[in-house]
Fold:
Amino acid sequence: MSVYVNHIDSAMLGADLFNSIDELIRTIPYVKPGYGKSPAGPTKSTVFSEVKTPQIRAMPGFDLLEQEIYKQVSTMTTGIEFKTCWVNAMYKGAFVGPHKHDKYGGVAIYYYKVPDNSAKFQYEMNDTFEELEVTEGMLMIHSPTLMHKVSIHDNEEPRICVVYNFTCDQMF
Structure:
């Protein structure tokens, strides 16, 4: 499996989760454009905001999101343990360079807000990058060894997602 895609009914998650995410986005600072390292080499990530574990996992509503992700991942593997989590808000002009999440067993991404002209998820397949248009409520689960990147976000409204890295008994 390279990329598994499903949707989560937002009504199941409740208003607490969405209020928590909105509060985080209102209160956290932008990360300035800069360069980082990835297994593929230097990567440029432009303006985005993020808050990491454990702060957000303790916020109202995140337990329901984790339960839903756990339920879907558990159909593919066992021994699932969430290790890191962050909320990513991409603003106009933001993109993320090629990278992997090799230290983990898998990656789960829940797309909360996806306005028109949003950045697309791009993943390497047969030496070329395939493009996947994401939608609100989408849950994407992929292998930690999947080389992927995110195209340029072209909307004044941010594209917001919640990302989890997890370990498991059998990496997929």
Observations:
- The helical segments are 10-27, 62-73.
- Confidence is low (pLDDT under 50) at residues 34-48.
